[in-house]
Write a structure and sequence with these properties.
Pfam families: Trypsin (PF00089). GO terms for molecular function: serine-type endopeptidase activity. This protein has 250 residues and is mostly beta strands. The protein has two domains: 100 residues, Thrombin, subunit H (Beta Barrel), CATH 2.40.10; 110 residues, Beta Barrel (Thrombin, subunit H). The protein has three helices and 13 strands, in the order αβββββββββαββββα. The strands form two sheets. Strands 8-9-10-13-12-11 form a six-stranded antiparallel beta barrel. A hairpin with a 2-residue loop joins β2 and β3. The longest helix is centred in the first third of the chain and has 14 residues. It is globular, with a radius of gyration of 18 Å. The termini are far apart. The N terminus is likely disordered.
Length: 250
Amino acid sequence: MGSLQVIIASALFYVLLPPGECITGGKESTPHSRPYMASLQLEGKHNCGGFLISSQWVMSAAHCFQGGIKYKVVLGAHSLSQAEDKKQTFDMAAVYNHPDYNKENYDNDIALVKLSQPVIESDAVKPLKFQRAGGSDPDTNVAVETAGWGSLDNLGSRPDKLHEVTVAVIKSSICGRSNSYGESFTTNMLCAGKPRKDTCDGDSGGPLLYNGIAVGITSNGGRKCGSTRKPGLYTIISHYDDWITRTMTQ
């Protein structure tokens, strides 16, 4: 096969790849531009995300804590591997999964982590505001943002540095269709995505932001990241306002 034929064949291969077989469409974040981001790590390796909501509390996804897993919580990171002087690492003093979390369909997929001690706030470590009950959650087709150190593709390639992506809220009735999530999709969930733009494995627990406020928690998705049939699922934070307040003040 001639060189021109090889180039054409290669181009066709990438064009014809189904959604999710390429990168998930994000970009590297500006270092420390998202100072609320937390990396939940096991033996020094990133496993799930989270985000700082007060000086001693991190919000994440309940499915990240099944089986009594105890993480180190790293804040102030951009690169996971480099010894950045802005990083702060904490043990978990306690973790609270929502009592009604359903591991079958990921309903009520929210958790709160109390850190072993308060953070030292800096330009790289700051809490993020989250949506309270009565606030305005994003409408269909509205642009929302999320970030994490999760896989860049369906082959499991993980970035060393924080990445972010902008997606759009998808109508709930579409995600509740039988060829999407069907009856597993509940009123506590929001779905968002764009073709080849999505969260992926390892992004769980990170925030979904609308106008700079966390409105959702990265929860679940289809077997292929970037799929238009099964876009990313996010737990709607405002539905848990009372539980969050009770947990953080007990």
